[in-house]
Design goal:
single chain; two-stranded antiparallel ribbon; mainly alpha
Length: about 375
């Protein structure tokens, strides 16, 4: 059943996107590691983690598109799932520092020594093992989404009210993680990471491997999302988006479908956060900021929600523009971002990819119509009998 669903997901578009991502996963690290410095095709060392960060953002936008574009759930709290996955990875990276920190404490991270912690908090146990941290990256965001969604969807909270409470959730987590006594580094968060799986984070090979892992994770996430939306489950999700009441009256357990999509989306967002942290080198409560979750919505809208490819394109383009804009006109970036969202809403309601697909469909229809008219206008050939 699962194999059949995955095979059905591999249409021409999915195969093309996956092939592009796998090519990028191989080409960028190979260019960085094997081409000499100064070669025009070599990707500079500092650029590799930046590209990797864009890919994790693309994963995050794809996760939001699964619930917003296909299920009609506008979540303004997906930054929380991203940050929780990042914190789980950050805790593992902090435990790997050992006695190489400023205070040379083999057990307690530096911020705990500074805050006079006498022992490691119970929720930090196990994070010295990568497999445990990997489980927490998936489990913590997924469990939060499941519990939150269980109560919200069972209570039939929808529309703008659901958007508001998702934003309230991420803001509550922001305030909680800012507290020094929470045991997560307070305002400064977690940083000064040394290595991952025994490999130094600053090494070129490690950066290349993390970039490749991000590209492959994005490809796998795309396959999973494509399999979901092209299955019978996906058709029900679209029905929930377009006519939730009618879908419920037909006998479908709408709450369960929404809960599945919301939880799966949170898991993808958590994995994206875990890949983001070692490439950026820090995780702090700022990742929970409601503004970050709103930006994710903008990425998805710009690319085209309900298209899978659109959020990836939107996330990469907007963040590449942000990197350039904040370097040239940093004080105007927020105005530019707001203007971009307004312009897309007014002139490209289906986003970049949606508008291109709509234009391509219209062009094909026009060609078919033109061929039909040419055929009807031509005089019929006389038959031999005549």
């Amino acid at each position: 059943m699962i194999t059949r669903t995955l095979l059905r997901a591999f249409d021409g578009k999915t195969s093309l996107v996956v092939a592009i991502l796998i090519t990028i996963a191989i080409a960028v690290p190979a260019s960085n590691l094997y081409l000499p410095v100064g070669h025009p095709l070599r990707v500079p060392n500092h650029f590799v983690p930046l590209l990797g960060k864009y890919l994790t953002y693309a994963m995050l936008a794809l996760a939001l598109d699964l619930v917003w574009g296909y299920c009609g759930i506008l979540s303004l709290g997906h930054g929380a799932f991203f940050a929780l996955g990042g914190y789980a990875m950050g805790m593992y990276l902090m435990r790997q520092i050992g006695d190489r920190g400023v205070y040379a404490n083999p057990i307690l991270p530096d911020f705990m020594v500074f805050l006079n912690y006498q022992e490691l908090p119970w929720f930090w146990y196990g994070f010295d093992m990568f497999w445990f941290a990997a489980i927490m990256v998936v489990l913590v965001p997924g469990l939060l989404a499941f519990v939150f969604g269980w109560f919200a969807f069972r209570s039939r909270v929808t529309g703008v009210y659901l958007s508001i409470i998702t934003q309230a959730m991420t803001y509550a987590l922001l305030l909680a993680f800012f507290r020094n006594d929470m045991g997560f580094g307070g305002n400064n968060g977690l940083t000064d990471f040394k290595d991952i799986l025994g490999a130094p984070l600053q090494a070129g090979s490690t950066r290349a491997a993390l970039f490749a892992a991000s590209a492959i994770a994005l490809a796998l996430s795309f396959i999973v999302c494509s399999a979901i939306v092209r299955s019978k489950l996906g058709k029900v999700l679209v029905a929930v988006r377009d006519a939730e009441s009618r879908t419920r009256f037909l006998g479908y357990r709408v709450d369960n479908y929404k809960l599945f999509a919301f939880t799966a989306s949170a898991v993808i967002a958590g994995i994206a956060g875990a890949l983001y942290v070692p490439q950026v080198g820090i995780i702090n409560p700022g990742e929970f900021a409601p503004a970050n979750s709103i930006e994710i919505v903008i990425w998805t809208a710009v690319g085209g929600r309900g298209t899978l490819v659109g959020p990836i394109v939107g996330a990469v383009l907007v963040n590449a523009g942000k990197s350039w804009f904040t370097g040239v006109f940093p004080e105007f970036w927020l105005f530019a971002l707001g203007g971009l969202f307004v312009a897309v809403t007014l002139f490209l309601p289906k986003g970049i990819v949606g508008a291109l697909a709509q234009g391509w469909t219209a062009l094909k229809a026009r060609r078919v119509s033109a061929r039909a008219e040419d055929g009807s206008d031509a005089a019929p050939e006389p038959s031999p009998a005549e």
